Amino acid sequence: MLRPLLVAILVTVVLGIPTPEDASNAAADSKQDLQGAKQFLDQLNKEYGEWNNKYTLANWEYAANLTEENLAKKLNISAEVARYFKSAWEKVNEYPWKDIKDSGIRRQFKKFSVLGRSALPEDRYQEYEKIISDMENIYSTAKICDYKNRTKCDLALEPELTELLMKSRDPEELKYIWVEWRKATGEKVKSLYPKYVELSNLAATLNNFSDNAAYWLKDYEADDFPEQIEALWQQLKPLYLQLHAYVRRELRTEYGENVVSKDGPIPAHLLGNMWAQTWTNIADFAIPYPGKQMPDVTHAMIKQGYNATTIFRVAEDFFTSINLTAMPDLFWQRSILEKPKDRELICHASAWDFYDGKDFRIKQCTRVNMEDLLTAHHEMGHVEYYLQYKDQPNVFKEGANPGFHEAVGDVISLSASTPSHLKAIKLLDDDSTDTEANINHLFLKGLEKIVFLPFAYMMDKWRWNVFQGKVTSDNYNCNWWDLAEEFQGIEPPVDRSEDDFDPGAKYHIIADVEYMRYFVSFVVQFQFHKALCIEAKQYNPQNPNSKLLHECDIYNNKAAGNLLKNMLELGSSKPWQDAMERITGQKNMESAGLLEYFKPLTDWLTAENKKTNEYIGWKPRARQCVQTRSELASFEEKTEANE
Ligand code: X8Z
Ligand code: ZN
Which of 141, 171, 307, 409 is the most buried (most CB within 10 A)? Predict the structure, then answer.
């Protein structure tokens, strides 16, 4: 059947120059085409939503209860869904959408014209889904033995290992946990990963991308996106280097020069977090002014009997105070906010949109502490975005780009974790704003935000290398540590070989979640925060008497909330640059917001490091990339003999 648009083109080509009648026909035709296209898209969006709903329900069942039966169900449904997606995609490709001028309609078609992993042949698709589910299962059910009691072997990442890494100050215990976690996860998924890479790349090429790195990058709608990220990192790096040097000094004081050198990379097991991605948990000994208030509210939360629900209610209250939407009843009924005792599940916190405009959930093994209070805001930010764009066509039910989605809850947290806000909600006694208190507050935020940037960057630098074939399975681990040293200035506490697979000890690597989104988020959230604070009339860079950016709290400010809402409502219906413009007036990602926020800390760290003549940066380690652990042992013997 010839579609009207095609007929119009044929008529024009065959009959030559159009007459005035033709012109009016063409206009009528085009109106008809537009109507036809809208009908086509309405139907597609409807089906897309229904299948996504089915798929997400099955995914949730498995993620919330990791049984063989749930896995089989999920795999069956996902195969069925993939068949539907493929057939819908074929119809889209037949449709002459590229001739349509209406940008909103074209954008929907363009999104529908990328099929994703459903492009794989059915058997390979099934294999791919199975590999990822198996890796998730290994990771999420991993247990290690207790350091002191090696017969007690039921320690899970959440809560036990996370807590131990937070609290233990015994470097040998920390090293033990660090190594054992990687044995229980990375080493076990190692053999599955090359096949995952192969199938990811195959799916990407079937979608006309050169590889999976290029496929991931499409969501950022900018050809020079990697260069944009690199430019941002170059602007932010000097601040990271100052913080790194100061923290290494504090670690040296805590653990001694035998454990932490003056000018080398920092040993990765001492930073209070399994992946050294945030360092907030070492603030107790690294804090600039120990006698002064440090806005850590964990004790107050425990003392006041907080539980998972209270934590999420506190987060919700912030959102509603700025005119955003409360969580629907179903959210409270169906979310999993505490770790169930009777089954294995994926504890890594996540937020879910079930594509029916009603069902939105969070799954989080919440612990009562400040870190999880902030994570609750983070997760609820995702749900708030779902709620704001729920009336968009299903294909636009995404963030403006993945980084925007990650930024929503964090923007709220920037206000919610100010000392004055914490005092207002009775979690902190003292909200002094003298210089020392300010520096403590900014330092804690720096250990969360600045420190994370090189981690997020190296995570996907590594995967870009892998997908682009620059790094192959015989040097996966070696490249991982090259990048960790280059960007984060950290080193493993024990020598590693290719028998280890340390990337596989991080959730997003084994769960196929792109990570550059968090780098983007950690930059743009400060742009958003600044714009909202200006809107709330709490921040005025021109006025020296105005509050500083890190003191601003938009709680209760409807104007700021409405500005955020205006942007969230767009979903992915417009390029992210337009969404960015709506909220900030700027079209680009910019480091200025973050740099302005941390300016007092930057100045303080620079002066402090000068005082003690700290080495800024790190001298590279002469590491040897070896294939096996036994090679490593013989290499170590040789070096010892030479010494
Ligand atoms: O994975 C998450 C969230 C869910 S989107 C809990 N985050 C990253 C991580 O844990 O590695 C939040 C910040 C970084
Ligand atoms: Zn998130």
Answer: 409
Determine the average pLDDT of the residues in 365-373. Answer: 98
* Residue closest by Cα to atom 7 of ligand 1: 518
- Rounded to the nearest angstrom, the distance between the alpha carbon of 245 and the centre of ligand 1 is 26
Residue located via tokens 């009843």: 329
Reported as type and span, the H/E element at residue 266 is: strand 266-267
The best mutation among 374, 508, 513, 520 to test binding of ligand 1, ranked by most ligand atoms within 8 Å of the C-beta, falls on 508
- The best mutation among 158, 406, 455, 488 to test binding of ligand 1, ranked by most ligand atoms within 8 Å of the C-beta, falls on 406
Whole-number Å distance between alpha carbons of 345 and 341: 10
Nearest Cα neighbor of 362 from 392, 390, 387 is 387
pLDDT exceeds cutoff 50 at 26: no
Mutate to test the pocket of ligand 1, among 364, 378, 383 (most ligand atoms within 8 A of CB): 378
- Report pLDDT for 643: 58
Residue range 313-348, pLDDT digits in tens: 999 999 999 999 999 999 999 999 999 999 999 999
How far is 435 from 289, CA to CA, in rounded Å? 10
Count of CB atoms situated within 10 Å of the CB of 383 = 25
Residues contacting residue 149 through CB under 8 Å, at least 6 positions apart: none
Cα angle vertex 315, ends 312, 321, to 5°?
135
Complete DSSP assignment for 294-336 = ----HHHHHHTT--HHHHHHHHHHHHHHTT-PPPPHHHHHH-B
Atom of ligand 1 nearest to the CA of 375: 6
Distance from residue 215's CA to the centre of ligand 2 (Å): 20
pTM, two decimals, is 0.95
CB of residue 518 inside a 6 A radius of ligand 1: yes
**Among all residues, which ones are annotated catalytic?**
379, 508
Q: Provide φ and ψ at 514, rounded to 5°.
A: -55, 145
Whether 349 is in the pocket of ligand 1, judged by its Cβ within 6 Å, is: yes
Query: H or E element: which one contains 183?
Result: helix 171-184
The CB of 374 under 6 Å from ligand 1? The reply is: no
Which residue's alpha carbon is nearest to atom 14 within ligand 1? 518
Counting atoms of ligand 1 from 1, which one is nearest the CA of 406?
5
- Can you tell me the distance from the alpha carbon of 423 to that of 416, in angstroms, rounded to the nearest whole number? 10
> Can you tell me the distance from the alpha carbon of 405 to that of 385, in angstroms, rounded to the nearest whole number?
7
* Cα 435 to chain centroid, rounded: 32
CB 231 within 8 A of CB 140: no
Number of the ligand 1 atom closest to the C-alpha atom of 349: 6
Q: pLDDT tens-digit profile of 67-80?
A: 999 999 999 999 99
